[in-house]
């Protein structure tokens, strides 16, 4: 599980931004180049621990071009991740946690910089995803309302409260129609 993630029985994984490790670059060079001078970079295990992305996911992101090819240690051949790569991977981890599909992450990663056209692309993509999330939340809220209704119905039946059971049956019909 990624650092900062908590699990609740009702909702599954939840990103806890208060616990998320943003200090991943501590002790690494912060130069303008992809490879910091004087730093040995981080291993794939260290990056996986710091970002919450699995090692296979990091390799996959490199394979499909979401992250640039990763430098290798000349003596061992192991991947070494330098500050700019780690920053990009952190951004990808956040986008993934927000539920963006890989193709949308790819579009965002290609839209680097602060030029008006790249900002517009980012705004459009993130706004569209936010709208999708809002629709998903509305659908989940309807599902929960239906389930709450069914629970209340069966509690009324168990208690012998026919008046409430009848009312809840009618409300349940309306809620059930909203599920489709």
TrEMBL record:
Record has Phosphoprotein as a keyword: no
Keyword Cytoplasm: no
PROSITE patterns: HTH_MERR_2
Single GO MF annotation: DNA-binding transcription factor activity
Alphabetized SMART domains for the sequence: HTH_MERR
InterPro entries referenced in this protein's UniProt entry, alphabetically: DNA-bd_dom_put_sf, MerR-type_HTH_dom, MerR_fam
HTH merR-type domain location: 41-111
Keywords, sorted A to Z: DNA-binding
Pfam families given in the database record: MerR_1 (PF13411)
UniProt protein name: MerR family transcriptional regulator
């Amino acid at each position: 599980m990624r650092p900062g993630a908590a699990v609740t029985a009702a909702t599954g994984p939840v990103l806890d931004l208060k616990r998320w490790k943003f200090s991943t670059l501590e002790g690494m060079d912060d130069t303008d180049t992809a490879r910091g001078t004087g730093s040995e970079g981080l291993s794939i295990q260290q990056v996986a621990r710091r970002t919450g992305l699995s090692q296979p996911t990091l390799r996959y992101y490199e394979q499909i071009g979401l992250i640039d090819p990763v430098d290798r240690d000349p003596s061992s051949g192991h991947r070494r991740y330098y500050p700019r790569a780690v920053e990009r991977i952190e951004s990808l981890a956040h986008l993934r946690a927000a539920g963006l599909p890989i193709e949308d992450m790819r579009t965002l990663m290609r839209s680097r910089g602060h030029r008006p056209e790249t900002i517009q692309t980012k705004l459009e993509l993130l706004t569209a995803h936010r709208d999708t999330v809002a629709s998903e939340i509305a659908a989940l809220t309807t599902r929960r309302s239906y389930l709450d209704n069914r629970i209340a119905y069966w509690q009324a039946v168990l208690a012998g409260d026919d008046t409430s059971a009848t009312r809840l049956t009618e409300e349940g019909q309306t809620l059930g129609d909203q599920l489709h």
